[in-house]
Design brief:
Elements (H helix, E strand, L loop, with lengths): L1 H15 L8 H5 L3 H7 L7 E6 L5 H4 E6 L8 E10 L2 H8 L10 E2 L5 E7 L11 E4 L10 E5 L3 E4 L5 H5 L3 H12 L8 E4 L5 H12 L3 E6 L5 H11 L3 E4 L20 E4 L3 H10 L5 E4 L12 H5 L4 E4 L2 H5 L4 H17 L6 E5 L3 H8 L8 E5 L1
Parallel strand pairs: 9-10, 9-12, 10-11, 12-13, 13-14, 15-16
Antiparallel strand pairs: 1-2, 1-4, 3-5, 3-7, 3-16, 5-6, 6-8
Length: 377
Amino acid sequence: MATVRIVHLKAALRRCRGTSPPPPPWALCRLPNRSIRSFSSVMSPPSKAVVYDEQGPPDAVCKVKELPPVPIKDEDVCVRMLATPINPSDINRIEGVYPVRPPVPTVGGYEGVGEVHSVGSAVLGLRPGDWVIPSPPSSGTWQTYLVKEQSVWHKIDKCTPMEYAATITVNLLTSLRMLEDFVDLKSGDAVVQNGATSIVGQCIIQLARVRGIHSINIIRDRAGSDEVKQKLKKLGADEVFTENQLEVKNVKSLLADIPEPTLGFNCVGGNAASLVLKFLKHGGTMVTYGGMSRKPITVPTSAFIFKDLSLRGFWLQKWMSSDKAKECRDMIDYLLSLTRSGELKYDMELCPFDEFPTALDKALGKLGSQPKQVIKF
């Protein structure tokens, strides 16, 4: 009996090395499970990744590097990444100005979509070919293969357009939570926002429309603003104004039959934030979730005394850290269903991984105004 086991053990070794075909099932039955496990390859493929060894300007510190295979433990899932976006928060992490950032050296990226390549021996519910996203988001998505515990991955419907699956969390969950967490909005109510052309802005317009909520939108004064207005109105915007159009004493006279908004969103700061405040009704709330102009928010005393306005802030990462994994995934499934039905859409540009430096330049604004950059592997 010992001789039989030695012969089959040698066959198993040759198979791992690719030097012989798999033995028939009866032969495998003679081998103890521990022998098969001992000589099986449990490593990921090598990965190509965008790595930065120090914080600094992304176009200076980011390098594409080859990473060696890593072990796939019993509860791990190895995912072949399909697509991943370049978000403003990714850039801030690389620059070292984001409140939470991984230690360097590290791989960039925080969200994306991938296909299961292989699974550890204790993994149940996922198999090769499934599409998954990290939920909540997890660092290191700018690489071709990513190994993390099964608990990180959320299986999604493969009918979802790849670019929407890759970008569903950071921007869309922000839009949904801000609409639902601060004011009890009802059909017929109104919201106002600046930064309406951003992905969050476009999603707020569409999610508000689904709920029967009016949206008042503020955009920058720039060439082509008339085309931008028409585009946002096609998404469901009720009103779209440039900042210069709002340099009037009574902005509410511009609203026609739309009620005064009770909730406003600010991602710009400076004068654009002041314009949001001008629209809000008595007791209204402005939620700040970004500061693209890097200018402070200036609030007149009268806004507090006579209008009783409230100023709040929203940070998705803090919300997701509050033991909300199941709730978060249910919302993602809902948002993905809206992308599949065509009720939720926004501008993106798919860029091959080999052209990452160009996509990064576009994301940094070095090539003018550009849509969201999504890297396709």
